[in-house]
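fyi for ur records
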Amino acid sequence: HRKYKIEKSLQVKGNESFKTTIKFFLWRLYKYPMLFFSWYHWNYQLFNSSGLIVLKKIESFEPDFSFYKPF
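which gave:
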């Protein structure tokens, strides 16, 4: 419910080679098949061996007390 934006210009790159990054990417798909449908996984993990992204807060939003509901 909070509003953030991914800052691609500040993306943290790891020191691993592209080959190592691809191997890790494929291993994660094998281990967690649901990631095949993950937009984040395809857009950020494929070329980012560190797995870190930088988020920028767009607006401050605090929901009122009635926002939270029991499950």
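The CA atoms of residues 9 and 48 lie 13 Å apart. thats all i got for now
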